[in-house]
Design goal:
With 534 residues, this protein is of the alpha+beta class. It is built from 18 helices and 21 strands. The protein has one domain.
Length: 534
């Protein structure tokens, strides 16, 4: 990758180089807050938590204090995985949800709220790897929430659109906290408006001072429990008290001489790895050939077909991860790819609205971190007086008892947020990720191919046009994809839509460490991202 970086696409931003520290994030102020931790004597892990805390109110349409989180951390000569996704409440069941009048898991309200994991992730990361204390790394977020920050342009557009949509669809007292917190005047802020979040500041301070215990067993937990009970939710203080984030071993597949690493299920990172396991059998010499797009699309379709069929809480999965990632299974799935678009179906392996950012320091530590409420502002529930915006991760559960991802108390659901990491010969290359629901594995595959097949630098890899498969043979293309490729894909049977805007194709960040030790970073041109470097 490093021997022949080329620039086939005009970059909207230049690749950024640094030596002592780097934070690539979707909000400039959050990136700068993270970098300030490294400059204060902290490390990449301290920077990650500082950035994560800031983003809960700087990008509230993507995440919140009530989010879930995943992280891949290179430290001490090893890659560590953290799964801080929460399970379904102990009181919920398929029968209970059906009795409440639902034929499928609802999108909004208290019903799809699982135990939030982000605050516990912050505490766990600092406890295991941080050089600073949790109050120190959360201090910038607390200060910015109290004193106010200017809203970024992209954030403002999404905030206003959600306020208008929620005003027409979310009715009832349970949503009052959301409107009081995020749309007190009936709409979202304009770009550059100074927004103060005193409730967020107070909650973040309580989390910092107690090592997140206030959120899971203290005053904040009591408020969450009380709000849930008032509005017919299932989440209880006992669920919060029982939650612990899990340290897990990352999973990986080899690709072009590198190891591409992801968090294991219940995350959907395995979908990206299954697609790469298929694509490794093809040779890609030219990104401007229609076959490149076609084969990548077909591979991700096959990966999703298996992911949706097999992936859930690992305790409920009926197929081993190693079987899904077996080279022989990738070979068999590859045989299904012809010159025609296929309707994907799961195979039979042999038995045997998210924020993403990346950080690195001069000591060798690197973090790939992702945090999300899911589908924008999540459940639409904000616990009044706290600023705690809650995720709606339970929406992805099935109410079919025979489905692998069937709703059950204490079970983790199929999870869309995935951090990525690249290694080579047992050494770290760097973190990468593309946020955006079910676009994420697709973004991972496209960015990795850009880096490793076409030797792009991190910024060019993010700038390049993207596609998104939605279902069946339906694919959405960015309008910058050349016309001859669009025409040939249509002739192959793909049902194409050309997007008029850049939204929906994910928002990514990439940091790589060069052989000489310098850091090189790219940030997403489709959002307000920035790289803070030292």
């Amino acid at each position: 990758m490093f021997d022949a970086w080329i620039y086939p696409y005009p970059s909207r931003r230049a690749v950024v180089f640094a030596r002592r520290g780097m934070v690539a994030a979707s909000h400039p102020l959050a990136a700068q807050a993270g970098l300030s931790m490294i400059q204060a004597g902290g490390n990449a892990i301290d920077a990650a938590v500082a950035t994560a805390a800031c983003l809960t109110f700087m990008e509230p349409g993507a995440n919140g204090i009530g989010s879930d989180a995943f992280a891949l951390v290179w430290s001490g000569g090893k890659l560590h995985g953290l799964n801080a996704s929460g399970p379904a409440p102990g009181a919920i069941s398929i029968e209970a949800v059906r009795r409440a009048g639902h034929t499928e898991m609802p999108t909004h309200g208290w019903t799809p709220v699982n135990v939030p994991g982000a605050p516990a992730a912050w505490a766990a990361l600092i406890e295991r790897f941080g050089k600073l204390t949790l109050p120190q790394v959360m201090a910038p977020a607390i200060q910015l929430a109290e004193e106010g920050h200017p809203v970024a342009a992209g954030v403002a557009r999404g905030w206003q659109a959600t306020a208008a949509r929620f005003a027409s669809m979310l009715r009832g007292e349970q949503y009052r906290g959301w409107f009081e917190t995020f749309a007190p005047d009936g709409t979202g802020p304009n770009p550059g408006d100074i927004v103060r979040m005193p409730f967020h500041a107070s909650t973040l301070r309580a989390i910092a001072e107690t090592g997140a215990r206030a959120f899971y067993e203290g005053a904040l937990a009591e408020k969450i429990d009380a709000d849930a009970q008032i509005h017919g939710g299932y989440l209880r203080m006992a669920d919060l008290e029982a939650f612990k984030p899990e340290w897990v071993d990352p999973i990986s597949v080899p690709y072009r001489g590198y190891d591409i690493c992801e968090i294991p299920p219940n995350g959907q990172g395995i979908v990206a790895l299954m697609a790469l396991n298929i694509l490794r059998g093809f040779e890609f010499s030219d990104r401007e050939r229609w076959e490149t797009y076609h084969r990548q699309i077909e591979a991700i379709k096959l990966g999703f077909a298996d992911g949706k069929h097999y992936v859930s809480d690992p305790r409920a999965m009926r197929v081993a991860v190693s079987d899904l990632l077996a080279p022989a299974y990738g070979d068999e799935r590859r045989k299904l790819i012809t010159d025609r678009a296929l309707d994907p179906a799961p195979g039979q392996p042999p038995r045997g609205g998210t924020v993403y950012f990346a950080t690195a320091d001069g000591e060798g530590n690197m973090v790939s971190y992702i945090q999300s409420n899911y589908m924008g502002f999540g459940s639409g529930i904000v616990v009044r007086g706290t600023g705690i915006s809650l995720q709606n991760r339970g929406h992805t559960f099935s109410l079919d008892p025979g489905h692998v991802n069937a709703l059950a108390p204490g079970k983790k659901t199929y999870h869309t947020i995935i951090p990525g990491f690249v290694c080579k010969d047992g050494a770290p290359v760097g973190p990468f990720g593309v946020m955006g629901g079910f676009m994420q594995p697709q973004g991972h595959v496209q960015v990795i191919s850009n880096l490793l097949d076409f030797h792009m630098n991190p910024q060019s890899a993010l700038d390049a046009p993207r596609w998104q498969w939605t279902e069946g043979r339906q694919v959405t293309l960015e309008r910058t994809i050349p016309g001859h490729i669009v025409e040939r894909l249509a002739r192959a049977g793909h049902q194409l839509r050309i997007a008029t805007e850049s939204g929906g194709f994910g928002r990514g960040q990439v940091i790589v460490r060069l052989p000489g030790g310098a850091l090189a970073g790219g940030t997403e041109p489709r959002t307000d991202g920035q790289i803070a470097a030292w």
